[in-house]
Amino acid sequence: MAELTLMLRLRVLARSLAIQGSWNFRTMLGAGTAFALIPLLSSLFKGEREALARAVGRHAGFFNAHPYMASVAIGALARMEFEAADQEEIQRFRNVLVGPLGSLGDRLVWARWRPLCSIFAVLLVATGAVWWVAAGLFLLLYNSAHLSLRAWGLGLGWREGRRVGAALRASPLRRLPDRLTIPLAVISGLLLPPLALAIGEGSGVEPISLIGISLILAAAGYWRPATVGRAAALILVLGSLVMIVLANAA
Amino acid sequence: MGLDAASCPQVMISRPVVAGPLAGLLLGSPATGLWIGALLEILTLRQLPVGASRYWDTGPAAVAATAAAAGFAGAGGAVGAVGAGGAEARYVLAVALGVLVGWVGSWSVYAMRRANARLVGALGERSVSPRELEIKHLLAMAMDFGRATALTALGVIIAVALAHSVDLSFGSADAAGAILLAVAASLALGADIGTMQKGRPVFVGFFLAAFASGAVLLWLS
Q: Which residues fall within 8 angstroms of residue B143, CB to CB, at 6 or more apart?
């Protein structure tokens, strides 16, 4: 059995950071996955140019996943290649991974972890933190999980190979999005009063009214997120146009 | 920053709360960039980069918005002419520019992904040498870099033009700006919560408890 050496692991992880570099509507992450797998495939098919070219082409076809969770697929696919698995089995395996790796990554990272870190950073801003503390802590907090997830995924995929689906189902990662729900609720709730006060203090509205109004507006956003989310941006764009017109007419 | 959003390495330096103060640092006012970044961050919270969805290109948006805000401040009385006030009005215009740049950016990413399909889409149908795949993959990233650079440059040019042509010298600009920002931020934060947690009483309970605690803490301080 071949070894996933530390150097090989680092090269694959470094390349996986660019896995979305050629993201497209036809093969999505396909070319990026092959790009990340090249060091592993090159070590497997050393001196076999035709076999290497076939393997690279095989992995450049359609594939999609959350970009961080794609490292799980990269590890597992590399393992299957090292075990000389049947090509059709590899293709089927790639297709099976698309749904779970996309769904878990989207729920965990995009819908929970990134908003949690973002709201934490904005809370720091609203409570008067200096710029490098807010931005620095955001980057540190977010990327500690981001980079760990990529490294863990590659190791899990390599260790489990074609059994990686069962390993993912058994991992605590699956329940993590739900466990991040309460921290997200708490930090969102904590943010609203200082944010409303910090922004609105120049308006002349009473602080207590300002906080109350912000809660009512947030409730409106909660009940109709799709409509109200767009309305928030439109209010700023249209409001700024009105302000320009008023200012120049005065 | 332009590459970071999707292509490489996705460490979130393209998020407004980082890109804003970094742009502000270059322009001599990281604190302005931080507030611009925080406001854009809230407005983009609910935009999840899932699958083939379109989402604002936040890095160029934050840079352009910060350039606009710094431009209004730097021009001082000559352009702003609102004395010590006018900060909120300045922020409204700057963030609105950021929203527009981010929106244009979402379409530029869409166009680039179609171009990428022509560049690498057929590679999976044949044998392909590692060198060929690497060159095409890196070429796609170079295109993304060019796209983001052009978008940022366009945004900054518009920001400079705005700072030299918009007159904010009317008395109510400050208050109107503050109200607009507070309304938009509250709505966007609520929409974000709604998108992620709809129908979850536990979430709403904890949110309200934290909100009340935050309000009481502010009142006590």
A: B112, B115, B116
Whether residue A189 and residue B210 make contact (CB cut-off 8 A), yes or no, is yes
Query: What's the distance, Cα to Cα, between the start and end of chain B in Å?
Result: 38
Where in the sequence is the domain holding A96, given as residue range(s)? 6-106+148-174
Q: Using an 8 Å Cβ cutoff, are B55 and B49 in contact?
A: yes
Radius of gyration of chain A (CA): 24
Say how many CA atoms lie within 13 Å of B172 toward its Cβ. Answer: 12
Question: Would you call B143 an interface residue with chain A, using a CB distance cutoff of 8 Å?
Answer: no
Instruction: Tell me if B10 and A244 make a contact (CB, 8 A cut-off).
Output: no
Considering its fold, how many domains does chain A have in total?
2
Q: Render each residue's pLDDT in chain B as its tens digit; 221 residues.
A: 889 998 899 999 999 999 999 999 999 889 889 999 999 999 998 888 887 789 999 999 999 999 998 887 664 432 232 233 457 788 888 999 999 999 999 999 999 999 999 999 999 899 999 999 999 999 999 999 999 999 999 999 999 998 888 776 655 667 778 788 888 888 888 888 887 766 678 888 999 999 999 999 988 88
Alpha-carbon span B144 to A41, nearest angstrom: 27
Alpha carbon distance A159, A155 (integer Å): 6
Q: What is the SS3 string spanning A199-242? A: HHHHHCCCHHHHHHHHHHHHHHHHHCHHHHHHHHHHHHHHHHHH
pLDDT tens per residue, range A161-190: 999 999 999 998 999 998 998 999 999 999
Tell me: do A98 and A210 sit in the same domain: no
A64 lies in the same domain as A157 = yes
B34-67 pLDDT, tens per residue? 999 999 999 998 888 887 789 999 999 999 999 9
The answer to whether B20 and B66 have CB atoms below 8 angstroms apart is yes
**Both A155 and A218 in a single domain?**
no
Rounded CA Rg of chain B: 20
Q: Please, are residues B70 and B44 in contact by the beta-carbon 8 Å criterion? A: no
- Considering the domain boundaries, does residue B3 fall inside one? no
Whether residue A233 and residue B22 make contact (CB cut-off 8 A), yes or no, is no
Which of B130, B177, B206 is facing A56, going by the closest CB pair?
B130
> Which of A130, A146, A218 is the closest to B190 by Cβ?
A218
